[in-house]
Design goal:
16 strands, TIM Barrel, alpha/beta, 10 helices, six-stranded mixed β-sheet, eight-stranded parallel β-barrel, Lyase, Ornithine Decarboxylase, Chain A, domain 1
Length: 337
């Protein structure tokens, strides 16, 4: 049966490198959304709890409820308010309309729109937001923004930092006036963390860097955590002049021993159409078109590593590592090694 192996040593290395840069694990929000970027949130959660991490961020309540036993604080990033918010969770508020709908006394972090214009409250809406927070006794615990171009070396990053700093000052003053606790601020994602030299008073939201992927020169010395493995379904000798797979996209010029393995695009792999050359981790080429539940290649034994670094597949399909990893089926067994 196919499986995903998670390299515990590599994962601990990545977390330690991040801690070394930010100064403390208490300044880290581990982003576990979308099944921890395909790695397996509930598989990794006991490990990070043992390592002393207390704060995570997820996409929605379903993901949050899977992790409530492992983290002291969980921020729900993409919640659509329904008036039935859970008292144990912290909710990102992504616009004024959401603030009006969310249940009284709910714990929140305000999303601040500093340039990306996807989610968030603008600076000139803060006074209205404060009025709503007062009227509904909402518990304002923090605020954050998201960099639209942290992975691109242009001025956007600095413009957004400046805008967020102005917002932070206004939120601090409001919290003091209401006798609220000191608010938490966070703006730096993984790419932002690579660029920043001084975090000031902020926490960081760490997504892909915890799993070994960087945007620049890997100054953090990160190591990919996930490797994807497939098991042999069958094998045969493919005779010279014969083809394998739909559409006969691959025809061999000589007798070769091939095998079929139990992963395909139904398991979340991007579909290889047999054109060009797509190689597994051991440089073994996938032969012919990938099927829904399988692919074929030169016989590599009972089990083959499809990839141990998602960058290889990402480059072939002209996409990013996130796209490769988050699509991996949650039904593939995930194990710590």
């Amino acid at each position: 049966m196919s499986k995903i192996k998670l390299d515990t040593k590599a994962y601990k290395n990545n977390l330690n490198q991040i801690i070394n840069k930010v100064g403390s694990k208490d300044r880290i929000i581990l982003v576990f959304k979308d099944n921890a970027y395909g790695h397996g949130a509930t598989v990794l959660a006991p490990l990070v709890r043992e390592l002393g991490f207390k704060f995570c961020a997820v996409k929605d309540e379903r993901e949050a409820f899977e992790l409530v036993d492992f983290f002291e604080k969980i921020l729900v990033l993409s919640h659509i308010p329904n008036g039935n918010e859970n008292d144990e969770l912290i909710y990102a508020v992504n616009d004024i309309a959401s603030l009006k709908k969310i249940k009284n006394n709910t714990k929140i972090h305000l999303a601040i729109d500093t340039l990306m214009h996807r989610n968030g409250i603008c600076y000139n809406e803060l006074d209205l937001a404060f009025d709503i927070i007062r009227d509904k006794n909402i518990i304002l615990l923090g605020a954050f923004t998201h960099f639209r171009s942290a992975d691109i070396l242009n001025a956007d990053y600095f413009v957004q930092k400046q805008k967020f700093n102005a917002t932070k000052e206004k939120i601090r003053n409001f919290c003091i006036s209401q006798n609220f606790q000191n608010p938490i601020f966070h703006s730096h994602n993984s790419a932002g963390l690579e660029r920043v030299y001084e975090l000031d008073d902020e926490l960081v939201r760490i997504g892909m860097s915890q799993f070994g992927y960087c945007q620049f020169n890997n100054s953090l010395l990160l190591k990919p955590v996930l490797s994807l493995w497939a098991d042999k379904v069958s094998d045969r000798v493919l005779k010279a002049g014969s083809s394998v797979g739909y559409g006969a996209k691959f025809t061999t010029a000589k007798d070769i021993k091939i095998a079929t393995y139990d992963l395909g695009y139904g398991d979340g792999l991007l579909r290889y159409d047999g054109i060009g050359e797509l190689f597994l981790a051991n440089k073994n080429q996938i032969l012919g078109t990938m099927s829904m539940d399988s692919f074929s290649c030169i016989d590599g034994g009972d089990s083959v590593c499809v990839f141990d670094n998602a960058t290889v597949f990402a480059r072939y399909f002209n996409t990013i590592e996130y796209d490769i990893l988050v699509k991996l089926s949650p039904f593939i067994q995930r194990v710590l090694v």
